[in-house]
Amino acid sequence: MDEDRFIEVAKHAIGLGIRKPYARHGKRFYKPYRNYFATTVKSPDYELWVEMVEAGYATFSQNGYRAFFWLTHAGLDWLGDKLGMQIYDEEG
To answer: What is 3-87's CATH number?
Structure first.
């Protein structure tokens, strides 16, 4: 697993970079406005996301050559730990 690359695509999936985290009482928080990553089965990102699905950090749906991935609660927690912030999970 290429941890740096996963962090990069996971941040993109939740829109981190377009919107910034906020701080309260010395802690950082982020509320994603989205949670998906679209790719094709021939993309190098596809294999990376499949690894994340196998690790329990993501789930996916595939329609032909297109695939859509979402971070799970465990994936959001993992990413938050790596970035030193709490990432809200709308589903959990």
So the answer is: 1.10.10
